[in-house]
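Narrative of accomplishments. A recurring question from our advisory board has been how the design workflow behaves on a single, concrete structure rather than in aggregate. To address it, we present the structure tokens for one chain from the evaluation set, followed by the sequence designed for it. No filtering or post-editing was applied between the two.
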């Protein structure tokens, strides 16, 4: 049972790592927006104390980091941003999910779980796979 939990944890970590690759753009946007918001706040503070070196330093840092993140975000968008690439990513995630479900079915069989339950799950996964394939085919037409 401990080996099973280890395998499940490894599969979960692989899935998270795969998904993180494609959510990086959202994270970049959040950080960039936070830096820009902080820059606005600092500018307001500098109106009261224009000679404050710490605020000037922080403002320059926020602006340069926001600019750097903007460039990084542009590269990310070029790499993953097109609709074809997004579709490809979603297809990979769906394949990953289906393969993961098939692996779980194998675990259930090894644990000698009720055969009717295992067969029901297997049929559902097979149907899901077929329906997704058909949906993708219809979208291409």
């Amino acid at each position: 049972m401990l080996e099973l939990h280890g395998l499940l944890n490894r599969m979960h970590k692989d899935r998270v790592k795969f998904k993180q690759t494609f959510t990086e753009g959202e994270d970049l946007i959040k950080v960039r927006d936070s830096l820009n918001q902080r820059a606005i706040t600092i500018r307001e503070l500098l109106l009261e104390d224009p000679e404050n070196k710490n605020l000037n330093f922080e403002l320059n840092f926020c602006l340069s980091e926001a600019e750097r993140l903007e460039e990084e975000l542009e590269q990310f968008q070029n790499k993953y941003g097109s609709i074809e690439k997004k579709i490809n990513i979603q297809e990979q995630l769906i394949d990953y999910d289906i393969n993961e479900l098939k692996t779980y079915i194998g675990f259930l069989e090894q644990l000698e779980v009720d055969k009717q339950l295992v067969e029901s799950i297997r049929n559902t996964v097979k149907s899901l796979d077929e329906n997704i394939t058909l949906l993708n085919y219809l979208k291409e037409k």
